[in-house]
Structure formats: C-alpha cells, structure tokens
Write a structure and sequence with these properties.
The chain is an all-beta fold and about 425 residues long. The protein has no helices and 32 strands. The chain has strands spanning about 30, 45, 55-60, 65-70, 85, 95, 105-110, 115-120, 125-130, 140, 145-150, 155-160, 165-170, 180, 190-195, 200-205, 210-215, 230, 240-245, 250-255, 260-270, 275-280, 290, 295-300, 315, 325, 335-340, 350-355, 370, 380, 390-395, 405. The strands form eight sheets. A four-stranded antiparallel β-sheet has the order 1-32-31-30, with no helix packed on it. A hairpin with a 4-residue loop joins strand 23 and strand 24 (about 295-300).
Length: about 425
Amino acid sequence: MEIKRIIECFVVGLMIFGNTMPSFAEIDEFSAKVNGDIYGQVKIINDVDGDGKKDMIFGATDGKVHIFSASGKEIFRPPYWPSQVNGPITAGIEVTDIDGSGKMNVFVSTMEGTVYCLNSKGKALWKYDTGGKILSSPPIVTDNGVLVNSGSGEVVQLNSSGQPQCIFKMDHAVQASPVPVDLDNDGIKEVIVKDNSGKVVVFDNTGGIKNSWMSASNMTNSQWPFAIDASDIDGDGIPEIFTTDPTGSTGVFKMWNDVGELKTKFELTEASHGAPRIADMDGDGIDDIVIAQCDGKVIVCDKKGKLKKGWPYECGYSIYSAPSIIDLDGDGIPEIVFSGNNGSYTGDQAGCVIALNVEGKMLEGFPKYIGKTIAPLTFADLDGDGVLEIIAAGGIGYTGPQLHVFKTKTKPKFKIVTIRQQTTIK
C-alpha cells in the first residue's frame, strides 16, 4: 500500500559496507563517551566489526570521523578510522554510494570550510576548499552531485570527483542547507537557497536565477540559520516554499508559491532553526504544519496557522533541529520526536529527547536526558530484530556522554527514506 503522506523520518539509507548477515541478537541501550562533541546527525552503515549488527558513523569537534558499533564501542581501523580532517566537524556528515561502486563514500564538511570525500576505508579521495566556514549544514547529495554551502556566500555543486560543476552565488554567507526540488514538475530539480540576510533565491540547474525575494530584512543570527524547505502543502501537485524568520522578539511563518508570491503568513512566538515539517498528524487526509521553535514551543497547525487541539506544547528546552515525525509507540499514529537543550541546567539534564503524541502529550518513558544537544535524531534497526532504535547525540560541553541508543516499539515499514520532504514512501 502506498502512503501518500510526505514526511521526514531521519531513517538513513544503508550503504553497502560488507556482506555479514545480521544476527538478530537484541542490543542493550547505552550511552558512550566520544573524544569530541557531536553537533550533527549520526548516520547508519552496514556491519564493520563483524558482530552482525549495523554500525554508527559521525563527525565530532575533535576533527575526526568516528565509527561506533551497536555495542557502544568505537571501531578502530588504523590508519584511517577514526579519520582525521583539517578542523572541527559541527555540520555533520553524509553517507552514500556516489560512484555506483557498491561501497560507501563519506562526505565531511569542516568548520575550516573544507569538504572531504572519504572511501569505505576512511581514506580521503579528494577535498575541496569552499573559501568560507561551514558551521551547521552537512553536504547534500543529489542526482547531479554534492551541494555544499558555506560562509563564502556560494553554494557549490561538486561531481563525484570533487570538481565544481555549478556555482550558485548569493550576496551573503549561506549556513542553511540548500534545497534541491522540482518546483515546476518538468523533471529537473531547481535549487532553493536562503542566505544569512534572509534572501531567498530559486536557481535553475545551471546556476541561473529563476526567482528571488526577501524573506526577512532583520536577520541577526548567522551561526544557526533559519532553514527553508519545500513541499506540496495544498495538494495541487506543485511544491510550496516555506520558512520561519525572527521578527524582533517574536517570529513568523511564511509560505510562497514557486514564483515567490506570498500565499500564507502567520505569527509565532519565535522562529525555528529547523525547517517546519509537513505531515498529516490527525489522519484527516490534510497535511498539517509542525514547527519546533527556538523558544521550546512546539505547535501543530493548519496552513493558516490555526492550532490543532492540544497545541502548543512548551518543553522548556531550546530546539535547534527539526523534529522527526514517526510512529514511535507502534500504534499506527505518528508522534513528534525532537531533542533540545537548556543552558541553565547542568549534567545530563542540560538536554533531552522528547516525544509527543498528536494531542501534545508526552509519551511514557520521556524525556530521556542526554546532556546538551542540537543534533537531529536518527531512527534505525541496528540489531536486525525488526524494531527501530533511537540514536541521539548529546553531552556537548562535557554535560554527559555523547552517543546514546534507546529502544522503541517502532517497526520499520520501509527500507530507505530520503531526507528531503518531497518523497513518497511506499
């Protein structure tokens, strides 16, 4: 049965890294210490250490890409794993088979502005200097190559050999991820870019500007961007473009059509660093908008901003990444799951994972305290028992261990989900 709901679940496509069959022995929940803070999402790869379970890979502020087993132990494969790059990694990594070789490539962006392509053994195949710092957005792998944004004010499309194929030029630094999406249904993806000044530009696939407009004129936060995304919200088959922006002490949600005409605008108590999520939360066949704001308030509303029953929810933690929409308790109804942190708390209570049902109530067993965190969550079946685990990065600033794995009751209904919202899940 085809599920027409368009959602993002942060379930990572598995790259071929070996032929070991899973053992189906259940793993234990754990929290592990890492030499360096993890700011980006943890990715999942096939078995490296031969224990029959999936492994985890991520970048850290020690300037290394680490691999951990499902038992919570780091995997060492000298001389390349852990793989050293030229600076701290705060933007996360991406894992894919870009050249069709059947083996994974790992793409890494460093704070120094360098992008690396590593092979399955952890050896650097190539690197590219963007000329500007990369703070929060990992490389985006598309059909046409790898999109990389930085403080240089350019988004560069690199081919599988690391050569620039197209450059999308902006007036200011770009720290929000670019969005490749087919806006006009011609089979060719445009690239949507929002820079740190609040300007939005829609580029064609050659770098030419199709449309541009100002989303905000008073953008002040250049380190943690206010992300943009696109999805068909009104059901006409054409994606809308949407984002949130700060407006002094409050915020605003805005949505445009593919040529930049403002279709919807409504006020928020604060903007959202992660792009809003689009999903049918109440099962009425109409997509809802899910926004996790910087001030810790989570809302579910219609496209005009009217709140659904039970919302908003105020968690008391700042939220830096977009929430995941996933059936966490196995009842067939989606939940909203996200991580947040509060600088006034110490130790592991400085950050946590929270799960809310469709009525804005916290699920039993939550929150799960993990120390300060800003990373998106990952959901994956690590041990092959047919049930997903939650993989969370926390412990920033020595507030606790950095890598956490929790059990859920969720059974995966699909193999691969891409991380763009324009995805049909079967």
